[in-house]
Specification:
With 390 residues, the chain is an alpha/beta fold. 43% of the residues lie in helices and 26% in strands. The protein has helices at residues 2-15, 20-39, 77-83, 102-131, 201-211, 213-216, 246-251, 256-264, 279-286, 314-318, 323-332, 341-365, 370-389; strands spanning 45-49, 56-65, 74-76, 92-96, 137-145, 149-153, 158-162, 177-188, 191-197, 220-228, 232-239, 269-274, 294-297, 304-309, 335-340. The strands form four sheets. It has a five-stranded mixed beta barrel with strand order 5-6-7-9-8. Strands 1, 2, 3 and 4 form a four-stranded mixed β-sheet that branches. Strands 10-11-12 form a three-stranded mixed β-sheet, sandwiched between helices. The longest helix is centred in the N-terminal third of the chain and has 30 residues, at 102-131. It starts with a helix and ends with a helix.
Length: 390
């Protein structure tokens, strides 16, 4: 058993990369439990493994005390001094208690410990491998599907894709090759658990990096993505090179680059818009393909605005079921209220009428008659006309 165990430890270190010291430490701890379980011993014991010849030794450990209360755990100072004059109170003394048939138990325990450590090491290897792939795009093969997950074989690990990560316009069949985005890797008790997605915005970014060299090398940067997977997405891009058009580069000649991504996502439409540090221009770009007349920001909320569009473009700006406006809001991070020009004009007129009425009420409260107020209005108007003429 000794030679076999030593050989097994050496092989594991070479083939699996599991250090002998780690297995020996685990083996010694397991043998302590095995000894207590098989021999009904509750005393403090210690098991040591000789790495040179593979011998195992079991020791009962007793503490040197003045008065012995538990003979299994303690030894008196007088008895300890008979063993060695150097012992003092508080010292631990080991007494070998290795049973004659302990080798059989040790062999069984060693096998269990080694198998457990091998499984743990393999799990750690897989976990380390796929942790590096988190937030990356990988290709796998669909294995099966149940009510909770689609199971995807990634080679040496089975990944799971939940319902919210599955494209509503796709059907997954066994042995289908699919690209998936690794969203999370967990080192669970049953082994590494890899979660993948087809709906995450990060997947769209990685697809553009694969198809557009300028995106991959950073010349064109994807600033933001808003996506309703399987239906439509908006992607905001900017160029770090003034000579390169970010939208045209991303779309590609005759739309070939973006069409490849659309095909990969089975028809998910793409709006590529140019990012701008001017929020008004950025919001207007985000509402593409609708034309924007004006963007008015809310004075009380710096992340809210009202967008004015031509009457005939209102439905286009809002989009089917509000999709265009919703995606634009997610893309820009602004709360967007869209109004047609006629609606905006009506609101403007109502506001002006209300302001005029309020002004009249104030002046009336100050004791001025209506005629005097009209004269003041005329005077103000004349002054305004004079300033405009000059």
């Amino acid at each position: 058993m000794s030679k076999e165990l030593l050989g097994a430890l050496s092989s594991l270190e070479e083939e699996k990369g599991i250090k002998k010291e780690i297995i020996i430490e685990a083996l010694e701890a397991a043998l302590v439990s095995a000894y207590k379980r098989n021999y009904g011993q509750a005393q403090n014991v210690d098991v040591t493994f000789d790495e040179k010849n593979g011998d195992l030794h079991v020791y009962a450990v007793k503490k040197v005390v003045e008065e012995v209360l538990d003979p299994q755990l303690e030894i008196s100072l007088s008895d300890a001094l008979q063993i060695n004059r150097g012992y003092e109170l508080g010292d631990d003394i080991k007494f070998e208690v290795t049973p004659k048939n302990f080798g059989r138990i040790a062999a069984q325990t060693a096998k269990q410990v080694i198998m457990q450590r091998v499984r743990e090491a393999e799990r750690e290897i897989v976990f380390d491998q796929y942790s590096k792939y988190q937030d990356e795009l990988v290709t796998g093969e669909v294995e099966r599907q149940d009510t909770r997950f689609v199971y995807v074989d990634l080679g040496n690990v089975e990944a799971v894709m939940g319902a919210k990560d599955q494209m509503p316009n796709e059907t997954y069949r066994a042995q289908d090759k699919i690209k998936v985005y690794v969203t999370k890797v967990e080192n669970a008790s049953k082994g590494p658990q890899v979660f993948v997605s087809r709906t995450a915005p990060g997947m769209l970014k990685r697809l553009f990096e694969q198809e557009v060299p300028e995106v991959y090398d950073g010349t064109v940067e994807i600033v933001s993505i808003a996506r309703e997977a399987g239906d439509r997405a908006k992607v905001a891009v900017r160029s770090n090179n003034s000579d390169i058009d970010p939208v045209g580069t991303t779309v590609g000649p005759r739309g070939q680059r973006v069409q490849t991504i659309v095909n990969e996502l089975h028809g998910e439409n793409m709006d590529i818009v140019e990012w701008n540090d001017d929020n008004a221009k950025y919001i207007a770009n985000a509402l593409n393909p609708a034309e924007v007349v004006d963007v008015i920001f809310d004075k009380e909320n710096d992340r809210a605005c009202t967008v004015i569009v031509p009457d005939y473009q209102l439905s286009l700006a809002i989009g089917k079921r509000g999709q265009n406006a919703r995606l634009a809001a997610r893309l820009t991070g602004f709360k967007i209220d869209i109004k047609s020009e006629s609606e905006a004009q009506e609101l403007f007129n109502e506001t002006n009428d209300q302001q005029v009425n309020n002004s009249v009420d104030v002046e009336a409260d100050d004791g001025l008659d209506d005629a005097h107020y009209v004269e003041e209005l005329d005077a103000d108007q004349q002054a305004a006309d004079f300033e405009q003429d000059n």
